[in-house]
């Protein structure tokens, strides 16, 4: 607020006289001379309706003069004494008075005269306390600035000047509080280009100088690095008041005070008792001043913010939280306001702000940091330029229009980086364990399937936990995790060593060796996001898949047909070696390995290979067999044969798992890739066409 200095050429003095009693006729104490009445007590005009002709309000140590033409119509005004010490604690050096009912659109200076308290030192300063909006608290509070005042005799006089453009302001009234303070200083200008006018108690002057330097650095970072414009504020420097905050705010470092009338009157207040906490002071200064910078891009008045929710409030808080690290100069700084709000980003981009936009913003400071890390330091000004132009109506729209990738497309990767401490290093991963949507406890043989269908908020995520306590879990047992909805889900392993990302999947994720997880008392966490901008029902399913009880294989291919050289013949080749029917069920087996994760069994030896992919849900097997060995029936023949197959039925026979294909009764399909035989390494005969194809594969345990 702008204030003018009033230079008093002469003080108006009220001289009071009384008759001094004669020495020989003393009057008893407390009695008036005979025939005289006591002087009347002074009268004060503490309330009045003052109109266009002006008027005056008075009290014991206050006089308020309103010049003719100051008001456009009559207004009822009232003067009340404020509670002693409530405004400036021990620094108060006069009675503080609140003048109620002053019209905002007054057009001439209002002259305020205050008499200091008895015994006050010289060089007092006058303050005026007004109602301003505190974005960080989302409410109107009384905040103080200093005004230019002139000492005139024993009083101090100031002109409380009209707001710029007063004639255009709405017809409403305000309350202002005036008073004198002692042991305060306006810090002398040490830098000609400082954007801040600092008032502080003398005892805190050194720390206040540092604070002013911090604010100037912050001003430059926002302007030069982030490319925000200050054009909407045309009057500098900004007033900054350092004072002792009341008992209920001892831990508050400070805040930005947004004027309801113009950006030029916005100011800042800081808690004198917190000035020595350098890092947090710089963080707060950055957080609050960035609120000011963004207010220059806002589209809502303070009055509107009080009666309706600002849709961009959470983004304002989130970006101020992110900016704290820049203000401190510590890239790895973790803002204190994040504590207790680490899981806010999972609540939902609409539900979170609806419940508590401030807390959601504290948590989503991580998302703003993610944006800047990925898209650069101008990411924010691009969004706020859209907000200022009224091109967007929500933060989601601002994010989507200002970046090449949409919020929906970023969300899963953001969660992965956030949980992985790649954004802030203070993420409390243990909170994932204690804030689960549901927990699947595998405690008995019957605990093999669990399906959760849940309602998801827009752009939100839910956490599922799997515990393993069943003693008979085997190394071959696996956990299949499937989920509906768009996008990937994240799978973590939680153990004594911490929480580690195992991977992510769109549809299914397989975790092998459940016995090992149980033995290590490890747990599985699944973070399932909803990437839709609307509420959705989504499903997450957990299925225990028992491991296949085999680690070896025996395979045989029989093909009859016409071969090159006009030979009608057949080949029969098997691995590991030729067996007789009476060897069953103890066929020699080739060692192999089954992966529960991929559901693929593989075995190979000296040019022979068997690859089988198991569809356990449908009890089908697909894959390929390549064999090279001597013919079962003709020992002089060296045979090479390769087939691929699909959807062969897996069955049990005499304690072994078996798949087979018989051309006279085909189930599934077999494709011959290659078939030839050589006699005595002289002539090779290659299959031309087949008349019969049979394939047998037996699975068992290697002895």
Figure out the total of helices. Answer: 10
What structural class do the secondary elements suggest? alpha+beta
Radius of gyration: 42 Å
Runs in which pLDDT lies below 50 for 5 or more consecutive residues are 1-29
Strand order of the largest sheet: 27-29-30-31-32-33-36-37
Helicity, as a percent range? 10-25%
- Choose one word for the global shape: rod-shaped
According to CATH, the fold-level topology of the largest domain is Neutral Protease, domain 2
Instruction: Tell me the number of structural domains.
Output: 4
- How many strands? 37
Largest sheet: 8 strands, antiparallel, barrel
Beta-strand residue fraction: 35-45%
Q: Please report the first level of CATH classification, the CATH class of the largest domain.
A: Mainly Alpha
Could you tell me how far the N terminus lies from the C terminus, measured between alpha carbons in angstroms? 92 Å
What is the average of the pLDDT values? Answer: 89
CATH homologous superfamily placement of the largest domain:
Neutral Protease Domain 2
The CATH architecture of the largest domain can be given as Orthogonal Bundle
Could you explain the architecture of this structure?
With 703 residues, the protein is an alpha+beta fold. Helix content is 18%, strand content 38%. Strand 29 (590-595) and strand 30 form a beta hairpin. Helix 1 crosses helix 2, helix 4 packs across helix 5 (351-375) and helix 6 (379-388) packs across helix 7 (395-402). The longest helix has 25 residues, at 351-375. The radius of gyration is 42 Å and the shape is rod-shaped.
């Amino acid at each position: 607020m702008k204030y003018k200095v009033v230079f008093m050429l002469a003080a108006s003095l009220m001289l009071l006289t009384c008759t001094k009693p004669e020495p020989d006729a003393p009057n008893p104490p407390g009695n008036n001379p005979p025939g005289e009445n006591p002087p009347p007590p002074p009268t004060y005009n503490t309330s009045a309706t003052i109109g266009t002709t002006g008027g005056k309000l008075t009290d014991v140590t206050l006089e308020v003069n309103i010049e003719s033409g100051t008001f456009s119509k009559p207004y009822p005004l009232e003067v009340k004494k404020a509670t002693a010490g409530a405004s400036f604690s021990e620094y108060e050096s006069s009675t503080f008075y609140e003048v109620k009912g002053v019209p905002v659109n007054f057009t001439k200076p209002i002259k305020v005269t205050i008499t200091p308290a008895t015994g006050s030192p010289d060089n007092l300063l006058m303050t005026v306390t007004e109602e301003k909006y505190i974005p960080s608290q989302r409410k109107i509070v009384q905040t103080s600035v200093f005004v230019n005042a002139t000492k005139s005799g024993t009083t101090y006089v100031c002109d409380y000047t009209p707001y710029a453009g007063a004639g255009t302001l709405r017809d409403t009234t305000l309350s202002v509080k005036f008073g004198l303070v002692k042991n305060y200083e306006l810090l002398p200008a040490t830098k000609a280009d400082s954007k801040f006018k600092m008032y502080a108690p003398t005892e805190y002057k050194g720390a206040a100088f540092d604070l002013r330097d911090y604010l100037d650095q912050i001003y430059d970072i926002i302007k030069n690095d982030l490319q925000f414009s200050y054009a909407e504020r045309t009057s500098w420097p900004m007033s900054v008041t350092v004072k002792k905050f009341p008992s209920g705010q001892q831990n508050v470092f400070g805040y930005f005070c947004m004027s309801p009338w113009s950006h030029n009157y916005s100011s800042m207040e800081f808690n004198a008792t917190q000035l020595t906490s350098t890092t947090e002071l710089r963080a707060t200064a950055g957080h609050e001043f960035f609120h000011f910078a963004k207010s220059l891009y806002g589209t809502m008045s303070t009055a509107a913010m009080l009666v309706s929710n600002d849709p961009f409030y959470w983004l304002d808080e989130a970006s101020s939280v992110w900016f704290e690290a820049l203000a401190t100069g510590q890239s790895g700084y973790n803002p204190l306001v994040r504590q207790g709000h680490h899981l806010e980003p999972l609540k939902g981009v609409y539900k979170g702000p609806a419940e508590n936009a401030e807390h959601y913003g504290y948590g989503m400071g991580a998302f703003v940091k993610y944006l800047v890390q990925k898209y650069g330091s101008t990411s924010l000004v691009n969004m706020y330029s859209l907000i200022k132009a009224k091109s967007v109506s929500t933060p989601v729209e601002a994010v989507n229009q200002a970046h090449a990738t949409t919020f929906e497309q970023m969300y899963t990767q953001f969660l992965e980086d956030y949980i992985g401490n790649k954004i802030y290093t203070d993420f409390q991963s243990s909170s994932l364990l204690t804030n689960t949507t549901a927990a699947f406890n595998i405690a008995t043989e019957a605990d093999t399937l669990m399906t959760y269908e849940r309602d998801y908020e827009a752009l939100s995520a839910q956490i599922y936990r799997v515990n393993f306590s069943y003693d008979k879990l085997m190394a071959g047992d696996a956990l299949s995790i499937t989920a509906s909805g768009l996008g990937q889900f994240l799978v973590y392993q939680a153990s004594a060593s911490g929480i580690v990302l195992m991977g992510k999947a769109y549809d299914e994720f397989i975790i092998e060796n459940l016995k090992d997880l149980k033995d290590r008392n490890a747990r599985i966490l699944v973070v399932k996001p909803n990437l839709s901008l609307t509420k959705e029902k989504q499903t997450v399913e957990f299925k225990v898949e028992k491991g296949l009880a085999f680690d070896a294989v025996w395979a045989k291919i029989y093909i009859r047909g016409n071969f090159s050289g006009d030979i009608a013949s057949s080949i029969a080749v098997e691995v590991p070696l030729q067996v007789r029917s009476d060897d069953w069920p103890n066929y020699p087996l080739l060692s192999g390995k089954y992966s529960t994760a991929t559901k693929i069994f593989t075995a190979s030896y000296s040019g022979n290979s068997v690859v089988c992919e198991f569809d356990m849900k449908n009890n089908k097997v697909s894959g390929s067999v390549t064999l090279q060995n001597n013919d079962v029936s003709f020992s002089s023949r060296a045979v090479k044969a390769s087939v691929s197959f699909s959807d062969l039925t897996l069955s049990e026979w005499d304690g072994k798992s078996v798949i087979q294909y018989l051309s006279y009764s085909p189930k599934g399909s077999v494709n011959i890739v290659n078939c030839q035989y050589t006699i005595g390494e002289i002539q090779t005969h290659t299959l031309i066409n087949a008349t019969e194809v049979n394939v047998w594969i037996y699975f068992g345990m290697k002895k």
